[in-house]
Design a protein that fits this description.
The protein is α+β, with helices and mostly antiparallel strands. The protein is built from five helices and three strands. The protein folds into two domains: 2-47; 59-145, Sufe protein. Chain: A, CATH 3.90.1010. The chain has a three-stranded antiparallel beta sheet. The protein starts with a helix and ends in a 6-residue tail after the last helix.
């Protein structure tokens, strides 16, 4: 009887081993399918009609520009295809008091870029032409820095 018991224990071990080996093989197959280059997102998204190619590295970027003696940080939010927004960050009260048209100018530029206009198509107003030109140049520089190069 003790001999039969040893065989049963060995069978349980074989069954457990077979189950774990099977799970390991399934896991390896899933990992292989998920991370195999050439299959997956790139080909599928390229074959979908109407899908745009990646133009920019998506992210939020900040650049410091000098206006007079003051430093102003401009934040540019990009997705893969377009500009999402342009904002002023950490704007000092003294700077906003010295340059009151700064915030409305950035909002105006942000709306135009978010609407799909290119940097060249932004309409500059007579009131704050110098400020708008500085901001547009900074935004244009950031957009060029984070443009995805063609393969």
């Amino acid at each position: 009887m003790s001999r039969t018991r040893i065989v049963i224990l060995q069978m349980k071990e074989l069954i457990y081993t077979a189950i774990f080996v099977g799970l390991g093989i399934i896991l390896l197959i899933l990992l292989f399918i998920m991370f195999w280059p050439g299959k997956g997102g790139k080909k599928e998204s390229a074959s979908v009609p109407g899908s745009a190619e990646q133009v920019y590295q998506a992210g939020v970027y900040t650049k410091e520009i000098k206006i007079g003696d003051a430093a102003v940080n401009i934040q540019l939010a990009l997705d893969e295809e377009s500009v999402k927004s342009v904002e002023l960050v950490n704007l000092d009260e003294s700077v906003s008091a010295m340059y009151p048209l700064m915030e409305p100018t950035v909002e105006k530029i942000s709306k135009q870029l978010a609407a799909g206009n290119s940097v060249e198509e932004i309409a500059l107003s007579e009131e704050s032409q110098y400020t708008e030109k500085l901001i547009v140049e900074a935004v244009s520089t950031m957009m060029q820095e984070h443009r995805v190069s063609a393969p």
